[in-house]
């Protein structure tokens, strides 16, 4: 569906054409912060696809579905109603009308989301939802995830693949978790190992594995500030929006 937006002509009075931006990469590379900031700067919609997989995982856990039983997960994949808000200043996500923004960030969901998201029926359901949201974004959209440029929106106007060293990623993720409070300080080594396990699970799953698209631009964020990464991506998007 992204193809219907790609190459669109400028709008009235020279307004920039709608643009679809895919930002992929593993956890801790700054995808969410970068994507939200880029979308807000350029007046685009924003979609956190990881939150959608977390939402369906949370639903499975709260409804007693064995997340390690792929057949059970597949059978329940069509039941939850997942709705994503696309305002980068205040992104929302609900499941069956219930605000799930907080619960989906629990350690229990984090531990189970790779198993749930590897189930083909789950990916088919969420991928269809993601494509519909992108197609309906009149001003354009920044979509972040792990398979956006390769599977969900292969015709995206711009594909970015963010990377960072395991140490930098662990430090960022530990800072995020500690900043939420409500528990003991997160162990940096344990966080690093958890990220590497998640990488392995996401990169080796059969359906839509985490991978860099052949035409994606790689940005290593290890030594960059968030502001520098955002500036880089904003510049790239603006170049794609200029009429030929």
Commentary on this structure:
The protein is of the alpha/beta class. It has one domain: P-loop containing nucleotide triphosphate hydrolases (Rossmann fold), CATH 3.40.50. It is 46% helix and 14% strand. The protein has 9 helices and 8 strands. Strands 2-6-1-7-8 form a 5-stranded parallel β-sheet, with helices on both faces. A 3-stranded antiparallel β-sheet has the order 3-4-5, with helices on one face. Strand 4 and strand 5 form a beta hairpin. Helix 2 packs across helix 5 (120-135) and helix 7 packs across helix 8. The radius of gyration is 18 Å and the shape is globular. The two termini are 22 Å apart.
Point out poorly predicted stretches: 1-12
Q: Tell me the number of structural domains.
A: 1
Largest beta-sheet characterization: 5 strands, parallel
CATH topology-level fold name: Rossmann fold
| β-sheet strand percentage | 5-15%
Q: Give the % helix.
A: 40-55%
The rounded Rg comes to 18 Å
Order of helices and strands: EHEHHEEEHHEHEHHEH
Query: What is the second-level CATH architecture?
Result: 3-Layer(aba) Sandwich
* CATH homology superfamily name: P-loop containing nucleotide triphosphate hydrolases
Number of helices: 9
Strand order of the largest sheet: 2-6-1-7-8
How far the N terminus sits from the C terminus, by CA atoms, comes to 22 Å
Nearest-integer average pLDDT: 88
CATH class category name: Alpha Beta
Overall geometric form: globular
